[in-house]
Amino acid sequence: MKTVRRLFAATMVTLLAVLGLMPAAAQAAPATRYDGVLPNGATWIADVPANWNGTLLLYSHGYNPTPNNPPVNSPDPAVAEALLARGYALAGSSYSRPGWVADTAAQDGLDTLQAVTEIIGRPRRAIALGTSFGGMVTGQLAERGGRRLDGAVATCGLMGGGIDLHNYQLDGSHAIAQLLLAGQQVKLVEFTGPAEAAATAERMIAALDQAQASPAGRARTALIAALYQEPAWVPGQPKPAPGDIDAQVVGQYQNLRAILPFILLGRADMERSAGGNPTSNKGVNYWRQLAESERLPQVAQLYQRAGADLRADLNLLTRTANVTADPAAYRWMTRTSTLSGRLDMPVLTMHTTDDGLVPVQHAEEYADDVRASGSAALLRQAYTDHAGHCAFTTAELVAAVVTVDKRIETGRWDGLADPRRLQALAGSLGLGPAAFVGFRPPEFLGDR
Q1: Which of 176, 387, 392, 413 could, after both became Cys, cross-link 354 (CB 3.0–4.6 A)?
Q2: pTM over 0.85
Q3: Which is nearest to 159 in space by CA: 337, 356, 16?
Q4: Taking a C-beta distance cutoff of 8 angstroms, is the pair 354, 386 a contact?
Q5: Residue whose C-alpha is closest to residue 259's, from 226, 228, 284
Q6: What would the pLDDT profile of 330-379 be if each residue is shown by its tens digit?
Q7: Measured between alpha carbons, how far is 340 from 47 in angstroms, rounded to an integer?
Q8: Which helix (H) or strand (E) covers residue 45, if one does?
Q9: Residues 70 and 94 sit within 8 Å (Cβ to Cβ)
């Protein structure tokens, strides 16, 4: 348990840093700070630079389950400084409570916008900007903020929605339980609280560690990682070569091991908010899941080398999938934690190519939903060649904001979100490196 707690604590420190929830550094750009409290108890802050350009950025921060629930108005201090220097005003709230607060987060943002507007006046343009969980919130704002917001930038967002997020994570957990903890009682849903979720994570990590000692265990790890949609590129390490499947499966294992405690503790918190388990795997065909992941050749080769039976394992997973959703929890998550794709404004999403916590496949699912709604002309998607969750550079984030600001001004995309154009813009800002690339995400596995 201590190992899992230490790993979770380290993971949280990293995530809080990248999601803009660590204490802010002093701002170099002159700005006036405003703050207040919303009727539901959420707090908000706003920074308005002396050279305000008339555009206000409404920031939605990432998932924060810790009791500390501060208001946040930018992804991180360096991005805040760069945006303020360019004349952007920044506003953001704490949300009404920590954790999976999808029922109020979007309204908290709109209420913050109203409170700030009453003080500084109506902005010339207002753009929603969000990170991770806040990316999903930004997606909600893009569907309901029509007259109050003009555009949106959703970064590293849970754009597949909360139900589908936890669906594919359930698939991966089911595979660990059946393939690496066979014959043991492993609770996958309806956790009684964080302690039970942490204990389950500890057992799963131990099983993954043990599996690395044999070719069959590594083959099964590759199958499990495919269902979790884990990338092979590990932050701080070289990217594995396209044909090096041994290095790829090591990277997938390392990424999964790092984020598994956060996934299960996040599920416990989500279930508490929803009042039960909103996810299911009953009736899922795991042959189809593996094929759609685009990893069937890799997994099949590893199974063949190990002399293991992939057909038997996939049949086992399909036969034993029996988790069903609690109807009330499913309805709550549908109402609070999903995106319809019906856009009220231009939206730019941005994702790293190799995100271990919120896989880039979320962008593929979101694009499908937006096309189905008839809003495709309003959406553009950008990708940066990095490993890690929300591992964007300052130049990339500022370039995304400037691009959407320009799209609102002109009323047309006109290639503004082309990766070469984004890269050139980022390079012209004098804010350091950028790595925009052309990219096609694989198929998202969480939609049932």
Answers
A1: 387
A2: yes
A3: 337
A4: yes
A5: 228
A6: 999 999 999 999 999 999 999 999 999 999 999 999 999 999 999 999 99
A7: 32
A8: strand 43-49
A9: yes
